[in-house]
Amino acid sequence: ENAASDHLLDGLNPQQAEAVEYRGQALLIVAGAGSGKTRVLTHRIARLIENREAWPSQILAITFTNKAAAEMRERVEGLLGGRAEGMWISTFHSACVRILRREADNFGFSKNFTIYDSSDSRVLLKRIIKQHDADVLGFTPANASAKISKLKNELADAESYARNANMSDPNEVAFIEIFRDYERALRSANAFDFDDLIAQTVYLFRAFPQVAALYQNKFRHVLVDEYQDTNHAQYSLIRELTREPEGAGYLPGTNPGAALTVVGDSDQSIYAFRGADIRNIVEFERDFPGAKVILLEQNYRSTQNILSAANAVIANNFDRKDKKLWTDVGDGEKIIGYTGYSGHDEAQFVADEIEKLHSAGLAYNEIAVFYRTNAQTRALEEIFVRSALPYKIMGGTKFYERAEIKDAFAYLTAVVNPADELAVRRIINTPKRGIGPATVTQLASFAENAETTLRDALREASTLGFGPKMTRAISDLSAVLDEAAALAEKGKVSEVLTTLITKSGLIDALRLSRDPQDEARAENLDELVAVTKEYERNNPDGTLIDFLTEVALVAAADDIDDASGTVSLMTLHTAKGLEFNTVFLTGIEEDLLPHRMSANEPGGPAEERRLFYVGITRARKRLYLSLAMTRAQYGETAVAMPSRYLQEIPAELIEWKQSPGSANSRGGTQPRALNARRWQSNRGADAAALPPAEKKQWPNRVTGTVRDNGDLELAPGDRIRHTDFGEGRVNNVTGEGSKRVAHVQFETAGAKKLLIKIAPIEKI
Ligand code: ATP
Ligand code: MG
């Protein structure tokens, strides 16, 4: 054993070390959460490079999110004490985009293709459904896109689907037409949707063995994290990539194909709804004969109390191999339970606890708050903003989903990929320049007859017999796009963007508008310019295509900037693979967890239980489980029932905190017994079980209307009254403008930080 390499094995247990050192064609590491699977992958990569068994460029590592990829790269570089240039560490989608950008011209696409996100797909499907009058058959953009996505994940296309379809069923016939038109539209727009990225790469490899051979020859090691969540298309991609290369220049028997290492945990499979197939892990040994299997059992992440809760919950799934996680770090603190009156009350508890932990020295970025549905963020955000708690929503695609941001991206796309008709249609009359639907139809049919693109039709405006004003409007737009295209050749994404949004009139239309919302929209565009500048700093060689690719991939999965110094808010799905010192699992209620959509699906409640298990096992030291007695959901406030999964945790592991209505804290009635009864029976309670007086006494304190104390002057020494916290004294005021924060010592509620602009306070 050479001493210089030992740092890669020190600090690994014997099974982990074996996994790092094993050399064979196929290796499967199966183990529960926090047992060091990802760490083993990282060390294995470093070992291969350090031993010169592989160049960095011969390694392909697949992670589930971009964030995980960035982390893994950092760790490997840390272990190697330097950059590992040329190594591919990325998500399935990013790896496929990279391959497709290089190879797309082999099969009728060009490398400047657009990536459609789900809302782009839906816009397209909406038009197609309308053309076929298929809405009367019950087709919607949402259900059609879900069905198409599912098929693509199984590597079915419209043709293969049609071969097995029942053509006497009008629904099937209509669906096939929609699917076909959708495929055609993508192709003529030079666009891939998200599922295509993987499926088309597989088709490419199968149709062009010499292209496949390039990659089969390039990669000596393929490593996949979170293998339990791969779907059929992803599985097929891995098979293609690890095959022996064939064709001219490749001698049979000289290259057995890349070695494959996969790690996973079937208890953490949470993407069945997207076609993830647990069988990929269960049948690994059959698919890759001679595969070595290594089990890891020791958990290095969490305390025993947290693990015992996780073990107890997951043991209720019957179709699994029993494995028990253990640790030698000790029991640790008990899990803390809390039942709020409402979602807001629950959120207030979370915020207050975070403040306490922070005051005691815990950094904000060591804390995470998880929830099942995005809708739950509303209450959390309102309270966090009021409490001036720094937070960041991870995986929140919100910014990129805003209409004005999508408009700006449509401009950029029209420059990069003029064939993308969807993008050109989006910008043609945004901002309003008098080009109505009739004109667009005329332009589109000209394009069709002339066998050119809608983008090129804009250039011909003067020959199409429009009036002078219309001709002028169209030509001006075309000229702006040309100018931006010339700029794009030379680089600087921010300049291209600035040119587009100013010269097209997009930003001025918002700035001059009387709608107060438009001011915020203009600010968002400014923010987008800032994003491009940041991108340029981080990627000096990045082109406009690279930028659009990054945003398309990142916005879909996780976040572009890091969250240092802030509390992370995310869905349980996004939390996979991550760990935090302290975790708040919120909304542990029936209809949320298990989600009401899953309740009647076969395997649904079991998958939701795995999701709960994933959430619990993210916590290192401290775990909070919270719920509310009433929750505003689907537009109404309803009584919420404790989740069935709560009862699966042994009672002695949880310490239930005083509920907010208890006499000493807020002077209300004591609902604790009621809570206990409710979560033990988990049935029976209905709206009537809540005394009306309580509802009245504890209305949602925070309502939709956000107040504005914009000009309230506060200085140290001032006394104020807060709707909830009562009277207090201002100790300090920090921040500026709308971000001014008052640090207040309340007489009974203790120290709080309040965002002055919106806090429910008055000077007394
Ligand atoms: P998950 O299933 O949640 O993805 P995992 O099996 O990938 O978990 P890791 O994230 O690799 O687990 O490891 C969990 C934590 O334990 C990490 O902080 C890691 O650094 C630490 N860890 C893993 N192995 C060891 C070890 N042998 N000694 C000390 N710490 C370890
Ligand atoms: Mg992991």
Based on CA atoms alone, the radius of gyration comes out at 28 Å
Number of strands: 22
Low-confidence stretches: 659-706
Distance between the termini: 75 Å
> Count the helices. How many?
30
What's the assembly state of these chains?
single chain
In this structure, how is the largest beta sheet organized?
7 strands, parallel
Bound molecules: adenosine-5'-triphosphate, magnesium ion
Give the overall average pLDDT: 86
**Spatial order of the strands in the main sheet?**
11-12-10-13-14-9-17
Helicity level: 40-55%
Tell me the overall shape: globular
Q: What is the SS-derived class?
A: alpha/beta
Range of strand content: 5-15%
Verbal overview:
The protein is an alpha/beta fold and 764 residues long. 44% of the residues lie in helices and 14% in strands. A seven-stranded parallel beta sheet has the order 11-12-10-13-14-9-17. A hairpin with a 2-residue loop joins strand 15 (630-633) and strand 16. Residues 659-706 have low confidence and may be disordered. It binds adenosine-5'-triphosphate and magnesium ion. Adenosine-5'-triphosphate (ATP) binds next to helix 2. Adenosine-5'-triphosphate binds at residues 11-13, 16, 31, 33-39, 265, 268, 300-301, 577, 579, 617.
